[in-house]
Amino acid sequence: MSYDKIKEKLANGDPIILDGGTGTDIQRRGAPMSDETWCAAANLTHPEIVRAVHDDYIRVGADVITANTFATSALVFNNLGRDDDVQMIDAVAVKIAKEAAEGHNVGVAGSISTMRPMQTGSDRNNLGHVWSEKEARRLFKNKAEGLKKTGVDFIIMELMRDTDYALWASEAALDTGLPVWIGLSAERGETGQLQGWGRADCAYDEVARTLAALKPDVMCVMHTSANDTDEALDVLKKYWSGPLATYPECGYFKAPDWLFVDMISPADLVAKSHDWKKQGTTIYGGCCGIGPDHIHALAQEFKQ
Fold first, then answer.
1. pTM of the entire predicted model
2. Average pLDDT in the chain
3. What is the enclosing helix (H) or strand (E) of 133?
4. CATH number of 3-302: 3.90.78.10, 3.30.70.20, 3.20.20.330, 3.20.20.70?
5. I want to staple 250 with a disulfide (CB 3.0 to 4.6 A). Which of 52, 185, 245, 289 is the partner?
């Protein structure tokens, strides 16, 4: 699907179905996860698994698949002294996704994250690793320009949870001239208020206000518990009146592996998505832990 067709759907408020958790589905199919770069290496070592994930999401009705580029984090790879590998691996990842999409009416997105080195056995990034604004912007520019070179239809910013790195990364994506979707991630803080996921120092309200002001094509609430997505949408809508997407996660991360526990059923995800539709959402999918069965159920429900 060309982005012109996606843009037409956005303008008309027509439903769009995203894929599910690409990285976690790669793990589920047997590709080993790295303590350092999570699922990034699978593009090189297990391309047949990455391709099978994309194929299955297309088969069950996804309108958009996201290339496996989330984990080629510019920050993580810089910390490892592997800056040049980011564009190389991303080119392979997008090639796999585009080959899967060929002959289908499906768009291909490139993902950008602000993931930092992970704490093994935890779902937390190591926030002790910091970069200056100048250096971080340089790294994000390299990542975004590399995705543009691959020919992705648009860039989707994923797990944006703060007002520093997320802002710099999103601005780098917008500077490419490609369409950009921004995905916000929230969790409950100790006081019960929503905060940026893994960033207790960043109130979710301020994250939403800051990133919505960039005026991307779409704002998303993603990698957020389905139980918190309702409130996260309400907060976001204070600052955003454009197209909305929801794609929650379920289960838990114990780096480097995703634990498929306390899962939401496909039927329950459909029911929650109807709640989010009432709040204005027209784009539905899933993040970590969500698989093809969930996306099939969403496609059957909303693409009538």
1. 0.97
2. 97
3. helix 133-150
4. 3.20.20.330
5. 289
